[in-house]
C-alpha cells in the first residue's frame, strides 16, 4: 500500500512536469520574441518541449487512472 502511494505521487509529479513542459513549449512558440529570432531552431526547441511534455504526461495519466480504478475497486470489495 505504501509503495502504491509513492508510485502515485511519482506519477502525479510526472504529469505536472509534463504539463509544465507543454505550457513552456506553447509559451516559447507563441509569445517569445527570442524564439522568433532563432527561426527554425526556435520552432524545434518549442516543439521539443511540447513533445517531452506529452511523453511525460500522457502515458502516466493512463497508468495513474488504471491504478486509481484498481484502488477504488479494492475499496468497494472490502465493504
Task: Give a verbal description of the structure.
- This protein is mainly α.
- The protein has one domain (8-74).
- Helix content is 95%, strand content 0%.
- The chain is built from three helices and no strands.
- It has helices at residues 2-31, 33-38, 40-78.
- The chain is rod-shaped.
- The chain crosses the membrane at residues 7-28, 40-60.
- Keywords: Membrane, Transmembrane, Transmembrane helix.
Summary keywords:
single chain; mainly alpha; rod-shaped
Structural domain tally:
1
Major sheet attributes: none
Mean of residue pLDDT values: 90
Task: Supply the helix-strand structural class.
Answer: mainly alpha
Number of helices: 3
Weakly predicted, low-confidence segments: none
Estimate the global geometry from the Cα principal axes. Answer: rod-shaped
Q: Into which percentage range does the β-strand content fall?
A: under 5%
In helices, the fraction of residues equals over 70%
What is the quaternary state of this protein? single chain
Order of helices and strands: HHH
DSSP strand count: 0
Q: What separation lies between the terminal Cα atoms?
A: 17 Å
Amino acid at each position: 500500500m505504501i509503495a502504491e502511494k509513492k508510485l502515485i505521487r511519482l506519477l502525479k509529479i510526472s504529469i505536472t512536469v509534463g504539463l509544465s513542459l507543454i505550457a513552456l513549449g506553447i509559451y516559447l512558440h507563441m509569445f517569445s520574441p527570442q524564439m522568433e529570432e532563432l527561426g527554425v531552431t526556435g520552432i524545434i526547441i518549442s516543439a521539443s518541449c511540447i513533445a517531452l511534455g506529452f511523453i511525460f504526461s500522457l502515458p502516466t495519466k493512463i497508468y495513474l487512472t488504471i491504478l486509481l480504478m484498481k484502488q477504488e475497486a479494492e475499496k468497494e470489495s472490502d465493504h
